[in-house]
Amino acid sequence: MGEISVKAGKWRVAEPQLREALDILDMERDQKTNAVIDKADILELLVDIFVGNSNKPLSVSNIRRAISKHREVLTIRKSVLGPTHILVAKSQINMGRLMQKIDKHSRAIPLFEKALAIQMSELGKTHAETRKTQQLLVVSQESN
To answer: Tell me: domain 2-143, CATH 3.30.450.40, correct?
Structure first.
């Protein structure tokens, strides 16, 4: 409707119509963004199922599935929230923990380092979560 008003030269009519169209698009974008973030959260829960919280060895199949889902979560969060969002750090930490669990400490280290950089920037170096990540990093560095 706003486009027709613009073409007809009815600027006063067109402006509120175009603003309303933008508002509708913003609402739809926000809903899609929330749905994508929810998808990432659900994928992360799936990883918990694949990995479990037991100390018994993981099957190769479940390790592959977990890594794949972690990558998907990380990709979603980076693209929707940006590369320095705290939830991106959470995804990196979770992936790093999985790497630790399967004794791939050399792959865990860069994940923890990236997460730590985000946490220091967003939370500060004395925050409890930042300190937990520092401890995870040290464990991997010492085990590498």
So the answer is: no
